[in-house]
Amino acid sequence: MSAKLNNTKKIKEQRKKMSLSLKQLSEISGISISHLSRIEQGNRRPSIRTLQKIVKPLGFNLQELLVITGYLSPGESLS
């Protein structure tokens, strides 16, 4: 699975695990429902800034999500 698809899958899985609707995550993150939906479907590749807004209410930190999804290697840093 590509990192892009894994990324969107993890976001959706975590949102559902936390019993959050797209509307609720939209309200918390400040990202529109339509944009969140496109990200979860793999139709949009979110910017780092957008990912930061999404991961915080989902209980991930950005670096953790990037490692989980294969954008960073374990032990690799964003800085």
Written description of the protein model:
The structure is a single chain. The chain is an all-alpha fold and 79 residues long. The protein has a single domain, classed as 434 Repressor (Amino-terminal Domain) (Orthogonal Bundle), CATH 1.10.260. Helix content is 62%, strand content 0%. The chain is built from 5 helices and no strands. The radius of gyration is 12 Å and the shape is globular. The mean pLDDT is 84.
Oligomeric nature of the chains: single chain
Give the second-level CATH assignment, the architecture.
Orthogonal Bundle
Morphology: globular
Class derived from helix and strand content: mainly alpha
**Count of spatially separate domains:** 1
The major pleated sheet works out as: none
Radius of gyration: 12 Å
The CATH topology assignment is 434 Repressor (Amino-terminal Domain)
Q: Tell me the name of the CATH class.
A: Mainly Alpha
Structure annotation, total helices: 5
Helical residue percent?
A: 55-70%
Given as residue ranges, the uncertain stretches (5+ residues, pLDDT < 50) are none
Strand content: under 5%
| Name given to the CATH homologous superfamily | lambda repressor-like DNA-binding domains
Distance between the termini: 26 Å
